[in-house]
Design brief:
The protein is an alpha/beta fold. Helices cover about 55% and strands about 15% of the residues. It has a 6-stranded parallel β-sheet, sandwiched between helices.
Length: about 220
């Protein structure tokens, strides 16, 4: 069993303690650190190199958006954002900064655990109730993807990668893409990784937004 190392960044001590308790109850999750503000979250992420940083969006000293940007830029872990509101400016900012996804704070314990596992294995994670609404709205706002990336995106990708990108835009996991395209899950994961690298994208969610921008999503 692979152990997933998690850093929990949340300024409210009672909420942070609850999150840590939920995560520590799972045998495959290891909480390696706790941060009470954004600056501490970045410092610990750089020091500990966790697999996943569970990041509160509103924190003192440095907000979750800026902290996410620094963590992602340093390659110091996937960031899973926690927020109270499903479509506020903080969420758009976090996705633009390269967050792997976000969950609402009123989530069930099992949703939190599955979210951490999903992000750790390279799949994006968005609160199910707002996934399509969020991606659609974000795409209409430009998605934070550089215009040059959008213009040159199709030319950089192989036909198979374009197909995979389309299903990423549909919200499918690596396993779901593999099933759709009759390939191994590891192959699907490799395709997604190459797509992100070629397009200079920080997260799978940004790839999903770009797929919508380019009209690659099947059935749309």
């Amino acid at each position: 069993m692979t152990t997933i190392r998690v850093l929990v960044a949340e300024d409210q001590s009672t909420v942070r303690a609850a999150l840590v308790m939920i995560l520590r109850a799972e045998p495959d999750l290891l909480v390696v650190g706790e941060a009470g503000d954004g600056e501490e979250a970045v410092r610990l992420a750089l020091e500990l190199r966790p697999d996943v940083v569970l990041m509160d969006i509103q924190m003192p000293r440095l907000d979750g958006v800026a902290a996410t940007r620094r963590v992602v830029a340093a390659g110091a872990g996937q960031v899973l954002v926690l927020t109270t509101f499903d479509l506020d400016e903080y969420v758009f900012g976090a996705l633009r900064a390269g967050a792997a996804g976000f969950l609402l704070k009123d989530l069930e314990a099992e949703t939190l655990v599955e979210g951490v596992r999903t992000v750790a294995r390279g799949d994006g994670m968005l609160a199910p109730s707002v996934t399509r609404r969020l991606i659609g709205a974000f795409a209409r706002r430009g998605g934070g993807v550089e215009p040059g990336v959008r213009r040159g995106a199709l030319e950089q990708l192989t036909p198979r990668e374009r197909e995979v990108l389309g299903w990423v835009g549909q919200g499918l996991s690596n396993a779901g893409i593999a099933a759709r395209l009759s390939m191994a899950e590891a192959t699907a994961k490799t395709h997604v990784s190459r797509i992100l690298a070629k397009l200079g994208l920080g997260s799978r969610v940004q790839a999903a937004i770009l797929a919508q921008d380019l009209g690659l999503v099947p059935g749309e």
